[in-house]
Design brief:
Blueprint lengths: L20 E6 L3 E3 L28 E9 L2 E8 L8 E6 L17 H13 L4 E8 L7 E12 L6 H9 L3 E6 L16 E8 L7 E5 L8 E2 H8 L3 E4 L19 E3 L2 E4 L6 E5 L5 E5 L1 E8 L4 E4 L2 E2 L5 E5 L10 E8 L3 E5 L10 E8 L5 E8 L8 E6 L3 H7 L7 E7 L13 E4 L3 E4 L2 E2 L16 H8 L4 E7 L4 E6 L11 H10 L2 E6 L8 E3 L2 E2 L11 E2 L2 E5 L5
Parallel strand pairs: 19-22
Antiparallel strand pairs: 1-2, 1-3, 3-4, 4-9, 5-7, 5-8, 6-7, 9-31, 10-36, 11-35, 12-33, 12-36, 13-14, 13-27, 15-16, 15-27, 17-18, 17-26, 20-21, 22-25, 23-24, 23-25, 28-29, 28-32, 30-31, 30-32, 33-34
């Protein structure tokens, strides 16, 4: 268990961050109080807030509302009670039925294969069982997922160690999991939790600070949400979008999807996945974005397409690019490749660009080519850019960019109609997916946004979408307010949410449009120098690629 309050050093923000706790009991009445000195707010609290659409209806639900500034509130929600029906069990990694000898084992399979594995385990003295996994039907995924094999019922995780050893001796992989983290169809209807959520609400009509994002000193280095918040002097923060974690998948910390900061495009989208767009005066929207990028020699008519921005050429985390292998469709937590690419780099990427074979063209702040290097890896000039080419593209780029020539680099984010998004000088874009709520209706686009992997017996969807995990949500309600929500998970004291439960929670909090942001061990909420949720990684708060910040002063 991670202690939920971790202090980090920062200057106190006393002028703006005034905390006035209000305790809401739903269903039921509402009381208001602050530590040591009761404070009574307006009588709007006499009407109880609608309960979350989460688990069995009518459960105990406590809400504590803290006013951080006019137009900015934090609502802490606890719901449900411990459920004695849950237990720890050993889940078996079932060998793949694919003809590929290198195909990995998975959590799900077809019924005959699951029964065969269970019978072999029983013969080895393991009390194995086969369970049919039914998932809630989503917009484009879910329903009948397949069959899993499990063994034993244990009071604690440690009690399952011997069973896992037995299963491994029999030739199968295994781990101990908590059944409260299952997201099986029908489970939520009679589930009693417990759950813990944090909700940050930003009202653009009243809040006079700034809602923005931050990737820290550069894109390629990871920092914790609390570090990003401290560096910017943020009143509050949550983790942001998906990013590269594995050096074999790119530059760790680099956005794995669309990103823009202060109106500057820093990373291309994954397919047309949805993103949170933060515009002027803290107004936000959720938009599906594509992109278009090119480099041209003005006056010549010569132009080359760009494959990406600020990422390692040849590696496309989450896929969704052009001519990617094995697919140009989004595939979450998977790295596609492209042997022939031209990638643009800006100073925000980091101290040096990725090294390796290929070509790199260096441009100054006027777009003039100052150098052409026959290997990759250099420093991006202040205000300038570089272009890297690999595979078959170095000769093409070299022909366009002799030393002393002028180049024009054009990058645009495109909305659903194909129109270029014109981000203002304070606009930010943070990637996410899948869509959860659209125009007031549940609409979970898991397959479209890459959370269903082809040929893996639904195993990725099972672990990522079907099962309960820590989640971070961004959405907008009917009043135009932005809501940033964290739900703790992978703990017995807070079960987490399946992707269907995530959408149900978003809608029951009043969101009319909402997306899923990066979750799991990344899920973090910071307020006034403290981490106020309970991150799930055993090592503590996870370093992330970017964070959503709420600052005390508005950008000019």
């Amino acid at each position: 268990m991670i202690t939920p309050h971790h202090k980090f050093s920062r200057a106190a923000i006393t002028a703006l961050a005034i905390s006035i706790p209000v305790v809401l009991l739903s269903p039921g009445g509402v009381s208001t109080a602050s530590p040591g000195n009761p404070v009574h707010q307006e009588q709007q609290a006499s009407t109880p807030a609608p309960e979350l659409d989460l688990g069995a209806p009518g459960q105990p639900e406590n809400r504590t509302v803290t006013t951080l500034a006019p137009g900015l509130t934090r609502t802490s929600i606890t719901r449900g009670t411990s459920n004695q029906d849950f237990f720890w069990t050993a889940e078996v990694a079932v060998p793949s039925t694919s003809p590929d000898p290198d195909a990995p084992a998975s959590g799900l399979t077809v019924q005959p294969q699951a029964q065969l594995v269970a019978d072999k385990l029983k013969a080895a003295g393991v009390a194995a069982r086969v369970e049919h996994v039914q998932s809630p039907q989503l917009a484009d995924a879910g329903a009948d997922l397949g069959y899993r094999v499990r063994a034993g019922q244990f009071a604690t995780k440690a009690d399952g160690t011997a069973a896992v050893a037995q299963i491994r001796t029999a030739g199968y992989g295994s781990s101990v999991i908590y059944t409260g983290w299952d997201g099986d169809e029908g489970t939520s209807d009679d589930d009693r939790g417990p759950w813990k959520l944090e909700v940050l609400t930003i009202d653009p009509k009243e809040f006079r600070g700034d809602h923005t994002s931050s990737f820290g000193s550069n894109l390629q280095d990871r920092e914790t949400t609390s570090q990003l918040a401290a560096a910017a002097g943020a009143v509050a923060a949550t983790n942001g979008g998906y990013f590269v974690m594995d050096p074999n998948a790119g530059a760790p910390g680099d956005p794995a999807g669309a990103a823009a900061h202060d109106g500057k495009i820093l990373s291309e989208p994954v397919g047309d996945r949805p993103s949170l767009v933060i515009g002027a005066k803290n107004e936000t929207s959720i938009q599906r974005l594509k992109w278009d990028g090119s480099v041209s020699a003005p006056g010549t008519g010569d132009q080359l397409a760009l494959d990406g921005i600020n990422r390692v050429p040849g590696l496309i985390r989450n896929c969704g690019g052009t001519d990617d292998s094995p697919t140009s469709l989004p595939v979450h937590d998977f790295t596609c490749t492209d042997a022939d690419e031209i990638v643009d780099f800006t100073p925000e990427f980091g101290p040096t660009t990725p090294s390796g074979p290929g070509l790199e063209v260096i441009l100054d702040d006027h777009g003039t080519v100052t150098s052409v290097n026959n290997v990759r890896g250099t420093t991006v000039p202040a205000g300038g850019q570089t272009l890297q080419a690999i595979g078959a593209d170095p000769d093409r780029l070299a022909g366009l960019a002799p030393i002393g020539s002028k180049l024009k680099i054009q990058t645009d984010l495109l909305d659903a109609s194909g129109k270029a998004l014109k981000p203002g000088p304070t606009a930010d874009v943070v990637n996410g997916g899948p869509t959860l709520v659209e125009n007031g209706q549940i609409s979970i686009t898991a397959r479209r946004d890459g959370m269903v992997h082809a040929g893996d017996s639904n195993s990725f969807f099972y672990g990522w979408a079907h099962k309960r995990n820590p989640r971070t949500i961004a959405g907008i309600d009917a009043q135009g307010r932005t809501l940033l929500v964290t739900a703790d998970g992978r703990q017995t004291t807070s079960l987490g949410l399946s992707i269907k439960e995530t959408a149900d929670v978003a809608r029951s909090l009043g969101m009319v449009n909402a997306i899923n942001l990066d979750g799991g061990g990344s899920t973090t909420k910071v307020e006034n120098g403290y981490v106020v949720n309970s991150p799930s990684d055993a090592a503590g708060e996870r370093p992330v690629g970017d964070a959503l910040l709420v600052l005390p002063g508005r950008k000019q």
